[in-house]
Design goal:
The complex is a heterodimer of chains A (about 70) and B (about 240). Chain A is mainly α and about 70 residues long. Helices cover about 65% and strands about 0% of the residues of chain A. With about 240 residues, chain B is α+β, with helices and mostly antiparallel strands. Chain B starts with 5 loop residues before the first helix and ends in a 7-residue tail after the last helix. Classes of the chains: A mainly alpha (about 70), B alpha+beta (about 240).
Amino acid sequence: MQNDTTHVDSLAVRPLPKWLTDRKEGLTTYKPREVIVKKDNSLNISVVLTGLFVLLVVIILTFYISRIQKKRKK
Amino acid sequence: MCTTKVSEWVLLNAFPENYTLVYYYREPMSEQARLANNNIVRENKSANIVFKEEKANNIDKPYYALYYRTRLFKRFESAGDLVSLSLSPLREKIAADIMSGKLCVMLYLRSGNKLKDEKGKEQITSALESSPFKGIITFIELDRDDAREANFVTMLLNVEDDLAGINEPMLFGIFGRFKALEPLLAGGITEENVGLMIDFLTADCSCLIKDNLPGTDILFTNKWENPLPALVNKILDENPSLQHI
């Protein structure tokens, strides 16, 4: 049949099947999207803003009540 | 990412590509040829093949040519050569195994050189013995000069365009709707590479694989509806450590 020896060199350089090389190189594996978790400061910001709001309300009410009391004394 | 395995996904979703059989003739076409062609169409009605007649006045005599995509696979001189074109005993057995839930059929196409054939077979049987999936893989050997499977051998040797000129043993993984992977051949038939073939077929199917399905479809009478559940899932459910991507 065919002369085997003529194919030895060509077989040595013949590329492997793509499904095989992909498998060896991990190219058929699915790489999940990388999820980057950012530091969440929203709670801290919320607490500070609420505190400032409460402080502001307290200041305004204090000022308002003291004015009323001054008027009554007059 | 889906968790359906490659072998199962391809069986359920990947329709085989059509072959084209062209009858080239000089005018006028004989009545005998017309009847023969009608017969060919009828016999291959449910196969993945399209039949065409084409006038070619520059030919000496009419003939048939079998194409897959744009590649000529084989030329036939008469309608009589087209018997068993899309059906043969071995192809029926392979299809039956796949439909019964087997992972794949590993078809070992012998070269005729006993030493080389035995060496390759040793590697394959060793890989199968050590595989947890050995019970769901069928191993079949085929001689190149098997007359009953001549057309099947032609198709296998056309899975890549240089195989017909290589006289070495070849291992084809056949899966899905009769898709044959590009073969391992000669020194490439190693325990490791056979293991990688099994890995490929038992991996979770990814978009990368679906978009770039390897292999060549083999011509076969298509009856792929309602296969039995893939046996690979039972093995993987019982052995979660075998799951991989």
